[in-house]
Amino acid sequence: MIEIRGLSKAYGNFTAVRDLSFRVGSGEVLGLVGPNGAGKTTTLRTMAGIIPPTAGEVLIGGYDIVREPIEAKRQLAFIPDEPRLFDYLTVRQHLAFVARLYGIADHETIARPLLDELEIADRVDSLPAELSRGMKQKLAIACGLLHSPTVMIFDEPLTGLDPLGIRRMKDSILRRARAGAAVVLSSHLLHLLEEVCSHVLILKKGERIAYDTMAQVHAQFSNGDPSASLEDVFIRATGGSES
Amino acid sequence: MTSVATMARALLYLRVTSLIGRITSRLKRLKQPKYLAGAVVGAAYVYFSFLRRAHGTYGGHRPGAPPPGIPADALAFFPDLVALILLIVLVANWAMPRYASLAFSEAEIAFLFPAPVNRRMLVHYRLLGSQLGIAITALVFTVIFRRGQAVGGNAWFHIIGWWLILATLNLHFTGTAFVYSKLLNRSLTTRWRTVTTIAAVGVVICAVVLWAWSAMSPPTHGDLTSLGAFMSYIAAQLHAGPLPWLLAIPKLVIAPYFASSVSGFLLAVVPAVAVLVAHYYWVVHTEVSFEDASIAKAEKRAARVRAAQQGDWRGQQAVRKARRPPFRLRDGGRPELAFLWKNLLSSSAFFRPVTPIILVAVILVGSEWLVRQPALEPFRVTTTLMFGIFLGVLVLIGPMIARQDLRSDLPNSDILKSYPLPGWRIVLGELLTPVSILVMLIWVSLLAEFLLLPSDRLLWLTPSLRAGVALGLAVLAPPFVAIQLLVANAATVLFPAWALSSGDRTERGIEVMGQRMIFIVGQLLITIIAAVPAAIAAAVIFLLGQWLFGLVIAGALAVAAVCALLTLEAWLGVRWLGRRFEHFDLSAELRP
Fold first, then answer.
1. Which of A100, A110, A125, A155 to mutate to test the interface with B (most CBs of B within 10 A)?
2. Do B331 and B303 fall into the same domain?
3. Do A100 and B422 lie within an 8 Å CB cutoff?
4. B141 neighbors B157 (Cβ within 8 angstroms)
5. What span, in angstroms and rounded, lies between the C-alpha atoms of B90 and B541?
6. Distance (Å) of CA B430 to CA B389, B426, B435, B485
7. Do both B232 and B112 map to the same domain?
8. In 3D, which of B364, B319, B512, B344 has the Cα closest to residue B436?
9. Domain stops at, among B277, B307, B337
10. Closest to B345 (Cβ–Cβ): which among A93, A101, A102?
């Protein structure tokens, strides 16, 4: 579903991501972790076709995000870390707008259970300014999931959600993965990633430090300690610093 | 060292380092060509507009003499007049009851309010912070008023004079808000005390007004025969009734500005400083809570800054309410219309599909009625002129004002780019709203001009010619407006950092002013260049057509050719800008 081959992204002399390769299959959830400035957001934005890669290939559902961006984007949902919403559109109007852009027929039938699931059904006539940070995040997620994407990219999706919201979000991600979606998510909440992800990719300074199933990465960096958490694995893998 | 002294040093450190940091960052950013170019243009503008003139004189007259047209003896009561203005400002300030709030930033509130800093220290910190702005304003006023040559003295007297006036006003406004906060706070002041205070102040105001009413006289016919006579009348009134008493303290405050010699300045500065110190004592020793209002003010300002940085001046309005959509957006159909729908929602409620129908009806009925009223001929001419001016403004400045396009959606570019749409569709969709709004207004104005132009005075403008010109302009309006908007949007996509800093009203500085000038002039220039091929084609076709087919057909052919060329340019522009937008990365563009 997602295939990244030799992806690099440079800004002038600064290379944010260097020669990165990985794949996420149907039903898999890949956790993207790394210290601040590791290149996580750049990787996700490149995968979503927001910024062009300097080198390498990004295939979404078999479509190249650079050569066939429209087909590739139809498959995916990108939920940024900071919910980007239109100030003058209510929750309902956001969904109507997105439905038109994706050509979704009878979007209200699809939106209703989605809004119920995200618990914002009672706020459909509210503007973003009237919503809490968590509610805005839920609206951004609802907009992203409205067209039933098969590839989902979440950048820090749990930020701003309350404990119950985090639990529901985790369940929602797992449910969609079980239904066949390929999911990539980045988060600093490692214990939560541990519960959700089947695979993990650790980045540091734009380079891949580790990439495999959760169990394999655990085995690689736990020094034989079966009780080591993903946090311990992360600290050992990255050397415990950003640089 | 006491804790108070430690905190005072910490606050002073914060203030001084913030100032140094601000100046340093301003100087450092001059390394970037856009800021350097802006600084050069801005400095040249300031020099040629103000400083060069400030070194000269008013048309060769000597300093201390009045500007041409003002009698020499009028200068004598200038101080009284300025003191009167100051008094009016103070009275207006007292007429606005409000809660005390000091202008802290959100960061200052986050760090200072929970810190072990007492209230008085916070007031001192804020007062100190406002001094830089006051000093710069004093300097700018001195330059703008050309060092006050008309009233004599020298530049230093005027800078210090302005600083004393502005600093005293600043303290007075703060003190007024403190007094009102105390009066309006039920736990500090009982209702009975508030009512008694207001009644006492009311009685004093009534007494003063009655005194002034009986002592002052209205101008006679003789007082209005010349400027000199009128000024003598004003001078007499300024010394009648309660005014000399009311103006006494304002006159002390402004006296240093009007000093003409060093000794006079020194004599004037002592009482002015005394008034300033008295205000300072008043503000610092008024025990009142300003925290809640300050937090609310800081939040409001931060929201305004964020909105401004997104190019959204409507964000400065306090309350937003959900609005009914302009039309029903069906699930299927062209995605561009979704952008029109979305952006119309973000524009004024006035712009709805029904608006042009109402406007056309009003203009048809109104103009028909007006044309039939010979007595209202001057009103008709004025209305025609106003519509003409409005039309000019729409064509020249409209595209800079109507920003419901990529310019206001720039912060959402990540989301826009994640949609499964080619760039040109996004660009086209984004342009639809400002094009629709401006074209609608242009068409309505053209209709009004067509109906209201006095044909009996402009005999050469026959009804058919008038209709032809109006129709031609109406046809050309959409592609021309689209090109103007394309240029403005292209500038934003090509130079987002320029667009953001030029459009951000919270950004200050001579370099930003210069940037804005370059940006606006550049856009106008490119629009003119884009219109040149169409203009040449129109001229050639019109001349040939007139020779071959006559005036009417030649005009129609010329309009059709211009329209076709402008539409082609606009279409090519949309496709090109779409490709640019697909490769656009705001985060990369804004990297230093």
1. A100
2. no
3. no
4. no
5. 66
6. 28, 6, 9, 10
7. yes
8. B344
9. B307
10. A93
Burial of B379 (0-12, 13-18, 19+ CB in 10 A): exposed
- Within a 10 A sphere around the Cβ of B263, how many other Cβ atoms? 9
Say which of A45, A71, A96 has its CB closest to residue B329: A96
Which residue range is the domain that position B420 belongs to?
Answer: 323-589
What distance in Å separates the CA atoms of residue A19 and residue B589, rounded to the nearest whole number?
A: 23
Q: So what's the ipTM on this one?
A: 0.83
Q: Which residues of A touch B425 (CB under 8 A)?
A: none
* Nearest residue in A to B321, CA atom: A127
Tell me which of 3.40.1280.10, 3.40.50.1820, 3.90.780.10, 3.40.50.300 is the CATH number of domain A2-86+150-238: 3.40.50.300
Total domain count, chain B: 2
Give me the amino acid identity at A55. Answer: A
**What would the DSSP string read from start to end of B24-49?**
HHHHHGGGSHHHHHHHHHHHHHHIII
User: Per the domain annotation, does B477 fall within a domain?
Assistant: yes
Residue B504 forms contact with A (CB below 8 Å):
no
Tens of pLDDT, residue by residue, chain A (243 residues): 899 999 999 887 889 999 999 999 999 999 999 888 889 999 999 999 888 899 999 999 999 999 999 999 999 999 988 888 888 899 999 999 999 999 888 889 999 999 998 889 999 999 988 888 889 989 999 999 999 999 999 998 887 788 888 888 888 899 999 999 999 999 888 888 888 999 999 999 899 988 999 888 888 887 777 777 888 888 888 876 555
Q: Which amino acid is at A40?
A: K
pLDDT digits (tens, 9 = 90+) for B451-484: 888 766 666 777 788 888 899 999 999 999 999 9
What span, in angstroms and rounded, lies between the C-alpha atoms of B154 and B257?
Answer: 9
pLDDT in tens, B558-568: 999 999 999 99
pTM: 0.69
Check B332 against A103: CB less than 8 A apart.
yes
Whole-angstrom distance, CA of residue B288 vs CA of residue B235: 41
User: Residue B320 carries which side chain, given as an amino acid letter?
Assistant: R
* A88–B346 C-beta distance less than 8 A: yes
| Residue from A6, A79, A18 nearest A44 by CA | A79
Over chain B, what is the mean pLDDT?
81
Partner-chain residue, chosen from B322, B332, B415, that has the shortest CB–CB distance to A127? B322
**Whether residue B451 is found in the same domain as residue B543:** yes
Cα separation, B498 vs B519, whole angstroms: 8
**Separation between Cα atoms, residue A113 and residue A9, nearest integer Å:** 38
SS3 A126: coil
Phi, psi of B13, deg, nearest 5: -60, -45
Residues of chain A in contact with residue B408, where contact means CB-CB under 8 angstroms, are none
